[in-house]
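INTERNAL AUDIT FORM
Audit reference: QA-55
Scope: verify that the stored structure record matches its stored sequence.
Auditor: D.O.
Record contents follow.
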Amino acid sequence: MPHLKQLQAQYARQLAIIGIGMEALPDKALWLRAIRKHQLTWTQLSELKSDKGVIEQLNVEQFPTYMLLDKHGRLVVMTSSLGPIEDKLKGLITAP
C-alpha cells in the first residue's frame, strides 16, 4: 500500500487511482474498515458480489491486480505488481 500511495503522490495531477474490491455483501463492514485503517483516499468501488460482476468481466484472477488505463479507457498494463505500472508511467508522463 505505501508504494501505491507514493505513486499517487508522485503523479497526482496525471493519475487517478480507483480501488475495486471483490468483497461479498456480508464483508462490507470489514472492507470499509480496511479502507479507513489504511487511509485510502482514492475512490473505492465494490459491487459486493465477491468474484462476480466487474471482477469477472475484467478477467481478474489474482490479487492484487493493477491495471493502467489510458485517458480513453484502454488497457495499457495489467499486472500483479506495481513495478510494471511505475515503469510505464515513467515512460508516459513526467512527474511534477
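Auditor finding: record pair retrieved intact. The beta strands are 18-20, 43-45, 66-69, 75-79.
Action required: none
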